[in-house]
Amino acid sequence: MPKPENLQIDTSPSVSDEVRKTTCYMCACRCGINVHMKDGQVAYIEGNRDHPVNKGVLCGKGSSGIMQHYAPSRLRAPLKRVGERGSGKFEEISWDEALEIAAGWLAPLREEDPSKLAFFTGRDQSQSFTSWFAQAYGTPNYAAHGGFCSVNMAAAGIYTMGGAFWEFGQPDWDRTKLFMLFGVAEDHDSNPIKIGLGKLKERGAKVIGVNPIRSGYNAIADEWVGITPGTDGLFIMALMHELLRAGKVDLAYLARYTNAGFIVDEDPNSPEKGLFIRGASGKPQVVSRENGELMDYDCPGVTPNLAAQMVEGSVTHRTVFQLIAERYLSDEYAPEAVAERTGVSADKIKSIAAELARVAFEEEIVLDQPWTDWKGQKHDKMIGRPVAFHAMRGISAHSNGFQTCRALHMLQILLGSVEVPGGFRFKPPYPRPPEAHPKPHAGVTPGQPLDGPHLGYPLGPEHLLLDDDGNAKRIDKAFTWENPLSAHGLMHMVISNAHAGDPYKIDTLFMYMANMAWNSTMNTTEVMRMLTDKDDNGDYVIPRIIYSDAYSSEMVAYADLILPDTTYLERHDCISLLDRPICEADGAADAIRWPVVEPDRDVRGFQTALIQLGAKLGLPGFVTEDGSAKFEDYADYIVNHERRPGVGPLAGFRGKDGEGRGRGEPNPDQIDRYIENGGFWVDHIPEDAAFYKPWNKGYQEWAVKRGIFDAEAPYVFNLYVEPMRKFQLAAEGHGDIQPPDHLRERVHQTMDPLPIWYEPFEDSNVDVEEYPIHALTQRPMHMYHSWGTQNAWLRQITGKNSLYLPTKIWEANGFSEGDYAEVSSVHGTITVPVAHHAALNENTIWTWNAIGKRKGTWALDEDAPEATEGFLLNHLIHELQPPKGDGMRWANSDPITGQAAWFDLRVKLKKADPKPAESQPAHAPITSPVGKAPRNVTRKI
After folding, report:
1. Which residue, 191, 672, 676, 845, has most beta carbons within 10 Å?
2. Angstrom distance (rounded) from CA 876 to CA 821
């Protein structure tokens, strides 16, 4: 065919006319992105090569952020309910009217009883600000989503070593030679982990994946351990058994940097049995190797003797290390004893333990870097154990998850592989021991702020939030004998407790980014009923619900007032050192988001709306002395708010000249400086301070200068957590604050100061012969939680989910492609499509999390695959454990922290015959305030 003579093809069309650099929000990695603009519109998104988190790498989630920004499901204006709850019938109102309504509800409550407001946020990344609002309002009822996500991981890490995985620290990717993952789904920290795994693979380092499901990271692991769910702690303790038996633990590290040498009171008649022996200074005592004397543990020049004993009359007191050896060298933790329970052979356990020992001690790393420790001793080298670990929700979301996470941290510490070259490294502002964190507060005074921060780390029964009658002060019963160390609250219990009026009734439920009417709740169908339930007077049991979201989610239909949020490309955000920063192990860093485009709808960033609501309510800190608004919007707050003198939400470019780092007066041009710098700020740690952070004087001094600490705060790791022993002592009858009788045995059993393993509560509460199968959910790498399931690009990757079955279960039930299964727990039944997955623990089934959507939501067609074939396992899970016959139904949570025990679920299944037309249960469609998306959308820039 002849070519037209004048045909001209532009082979290099202009992709964009401007690039605006900001921070991604498609997961919690907070990667740097370049947003390409053309004619004032977003054209496409790529990674920022200069950014400290992702260094230019961007995953499918991040690239598809453009479709999140243009999603047809975006809310368009404030909404007031005009139909029944759940009907989805609203009328659009102005922001002035919306804020008037909200203030009209909240102002009288504050003067009468602030605790009648329950303010809970979901995957909010501005928790230092939202908690500040709640504290100023005066309600004790505030928390974010950590209680149903990974509080076991965070709390276990803080109590043990002052930090944990994920935002607290990272492996030394450049030096690690052996890397073990436990229960890590691919959506968490995905870009940094992928970059790190690439480095490991390039260097030939070994990767071991421990997970019942082999997908993602575990699929590329050199060795996969398909463990039985809920038994990770037992497996880890068997590894410790082998290391102790072989003498392959770092004794010098344990003596210098941990409480392994502390002397424990073993007098059976003492009210302080199990606590540390203390000297005149009040500090724990060790026996000096140098002179055999009892001395304060932190005396310069003192090296604790781990094998020492202290004799008082007929009583012999021993060190923590001796108690550890006694416990974990017990035959009950031998590989042969745990193999059947864990699903991991004794030979496999022994070989992994031997590999850990070999790499840690035979491939030791030595850096010729002088440094000075906290006792003033100078060292000419930094010694490292090149073994690193990473873990997440897979080991955390069990009723034994806190102790399992503690066990993993103990394993790291026994190997001497924390805060050393090649091991696990903390990210500023961590490490911080529990003593450096606030204690929880719930002191309510009508018309006044709360008496302190809502959340914190109790150090004994005296820090529980109980009234004079022993009742919970918080609606979620956090920091009570039911879950004493609930550092993140119990978001999954708020609606159930509010509906039951236990411990008291509330008036207003205020939520942000918390899809509690669908995938962010246990017992989904029942929770929807609770949200719409009415009392004998015809009034809603939960009288008022305010909700903020950017999209038409399932929860929107159940609210009375909707405050529409922007997309992440249309607002200011602060990724702060006060909250969830983007730090790396080698430097402190924070970042911003800023409106690279202005909204084309009548929406406001939730944080700005909260600033305006706080001013309307006259909350302290939100208004000036004359009652006028102190901040115009969230950007104004970010720049001018000071949490303490010289320390604000952003640490970079402080002071009038913008040269302040960490500390300095507010800089009116601070946000502009961040934008000029690519949306982030980073300050690198000096080389002599880069490792041994809790004990490195150079790091401590640097952290004080940067405002991370107000004073140097060195400490030792807690292999033995003394505060837990204080709770045990109360359960034994000591002290003025006692647990209720029905919880006494449980507190004593679970609050052990050394890690223990006990079977998940559902295993002991259901007939495991009738319900022999473990059922799990896992988040796909290309979708974070459920944020991307209405995203046009991401839906093409996963538009529906199947229940994946191992070969044994697949063949035993005669399944074929296209079949459905009827799956039942003691709580409910679902009927869903199944698929075969051979690389899976043989007694475990699983599915992707939150792909299923309710019909009518998210601007999807009612016949969209997410709404017809997609499903949730949540229908099989209850927020309460099954009845035990004693009249008590305890929360389906870890008894120490209140972490939701999503992964304890036990089920049975059979082939569904006949096959249903769609997944069950199928709920009636919701009327969405944004309607349905157009069938076809074309756009050209």
Report:
1. 845
2. 14
Query: Counting Cβ atoms within 10 Å, is residue 473 exposed (0-12), middle (13-18) or buried (19+)?
Result: buried
Which 3 state secondary structure label does DSSP give 823? strand
Tokens 């259901």 correspond to what residue?
Answer: 766
Nearest to 594 by CA among 634, 640, 539: 634
Question: What does the CA dihedral 871, 872, 875, 877 come to, rounded to 10 degrees?
Answer: 150
Q: Does residue 503 have a cis peptide bond before it, meaning omega lies within 30 degrees of 0?
A: yes
Express each pLDDT in 291-336 by its tens digit.
999 999 999 999 999 999 999 999 999 999 999 999 999 999 999 9
Contact 790, 551 (CB under 8 A): yes
CB-CB contact of 654 with 648 (8 Å): yes
- Residue ranges, comma separated, of all CATH 3.40.228.10 domains in the chain are 163-431
pLDDT tens-place string over residues 327-385? 999 999 999 999 999 999 999 999 999 999 999 999 999 999 999 999 999 999 999 99
- Which tens digit of pLDDT belongs to each residue from 262-280? 999 999 999 999 999 999 9
Higher pLDDT, 849 or 596: 596
Torsion, Cα of 49, 53, 57, 59 (10° steps):
-140
Note the helical H segments in 493-580. 494-500, 524-532
234 burial class (0-12, 13-18, 19+ CB within 10 angstroms)? Answer: buried
Please report, as a single letter, which amino acid is at residue 288.
S
Question: What does residue 644 show for φ and ψ, rounded to 5 degrees?
Answer: -150, 165
In 3D, which of 154, 60, 226 has the Cα closest to residue 432? 154
Token reading at 332: 């009950």
**CATH fold label, 163-431:** Dimethylsulfoxide Reductase; domain 2 (3.40.228)
What pTM does this model have? 0.96
